[in-house]
Structure formats: C-alpha cells, structure tokens
Amino acid sequence: QVQLVESGGGLVQAGGSLGLSCAASGNIFSITTMGWYRQAPGKQRELVATITRGSTANYADSVKGRFTISRDNVKNTQYLQMNSLKPEDTAVYYCQAFIVTSGATRGYWGQGTQVTVSS
Fold first, then answer.
1. Is 76 left (phi over 0), alpha (psi -120 to 50) or beta?
2. Could you read off the pLDDT tens digit of each residue along the chain, which spans 119 residues?
3. Residue 84 has what DSSP assignment?
C-alpha cells in the first residue's frame, strides 16, 4: 500500500510565503517524477511544477521565479516553496509521484491541501 501525505498550506497575505511537503510511504522501490498540481474553484487541475529523480525541475510559466520544487530521495519526500504569493495562487494543491513498487509503476496523488492568498 502506497500513500502520499501532504502537509503545509494555509492562509497567507499576498506577497508572503508558504511551504508544502509531500511524503510517500509504503512498499516503494523507487520514485521517478514527482510534481505539484493545483485546482482553483471552478477550474481544471493544472500543473505547477515537476521534478525528476535527478532533480531537473520544470515550472508553469505562472510560477516561474516564485516557486521552487525540490525533493529528498532518501526520505521519499518532495517540497514546494512558494514565495511572492498572489491571490491567483489560491487553490487546493495536490502532490503527485510516479512510484515503482514490486509490481509496476503508477502515479499516486496526495489528499490535497488548501492554499489561500488574501489580497
């Protein structure tokens, strides 16, 4: 059984910072790509950032220069540091990880955590 557990998030004023973390646990052989997505009310879920096992990162244009994704392969954990937050960053943030178990590789999702940025 594989599980992704998110922590962090909350309420912050515009211009502030927040950090998210997402820890994977269970029968894990290795983790390839990890990433963060977000979904605002009434909108589709969108990519925020991804990071490969070798720590090559990719960002949505809307967050470049403000957000930083990172990971700890020993702890099976990924992080998202969000700076210079804007009201339009308000959304539920979900982590995703492609996890290799004894049988196969598949994508797993975290439960989601709310980030609210007030103006």
1. left
2. 899 999 999 999 999 999 999 999 999 999 999 999 999 999 999 999 999 999 999 999 999 999 999 999 999 999 999 999 999 999 999 999 999 998 789 999 999 999 999 99
3. S
